[in-house]
User: Fold this.
Amino acid sequence: ASLLTGIELSNDKAMTGEITLTGAVLPVGGIKEKLMAAHRRGRKKILIPMGNEKDLLQLPVEVRSELEVKLVSHVDEVLEWALGLKFLTSVGYQAPLLISNETSEVT
Assistant:
């Protein structure tokens, strides 16, 4: 479960990347090795930074065809994918507003 939210995480997901204080997801090195390791561990749904898209071409075709890779550029996308949390960012308001995934109410 997520330490922050207590929400259970799916065992078939894996992710890598670096997140800035402003929420941008930055590319990282070693994508081929990380995705090969995730594949060996049975992880089929993988989240990587948008900036690492070109690195997918380094994977063997048979491995790439068995993975569902999502490319992301912001932490909001990560939280929705991993935990099912949705955020809204209001105009002129810097911090995101959490929309509960159970009640669809802004909290």
Notes: Residues 31-40 form the longest helix (10 residues).
